[in-house]
Amino acid sequence: MAVQKLGRGLIDRIAALIDFRVDDRTRGLADRVNNLEHATADHRRRLDDAEHHLEQARGDLRWTRAELDRLIPHVAAQEGRLETLRESIALVPNADAPQVAEARTLIEEIQRQHAQIRVRLAGISRYEDRLRRLEERTEQPVTQ
Fold this sequence. Notes:
single chain, mainly alpha, 2 helices
């Protein structure tokens, strides 16, 4: 029994020594693993945020594209009307005063509508540029 007790005590001391050595060597690793877990959580949060903003930008881009698709036929129609008016003015050089006044009124109306369309297209262009910059910013690699 004494030998058994002595053997058991020796085994317990060896096990305690091994546990101490393992704990001593892995103590720094536990802190490092904990720091990496926090960094991973932060990266996940930032990635989710970037994906959310990217999806918003894609939605805005789809809306902008739909608006542009809607405006293009109007611009083409206005240009067609303007060209028709130019041709009619060129074909009839001898016009009386009411016809000239009507033609000028039509030209001014077309020019006004053309200016409005240019303003809208410029706004869409600025908006698309802003979306492009947002997409570029979200595509940049995340740095710490």
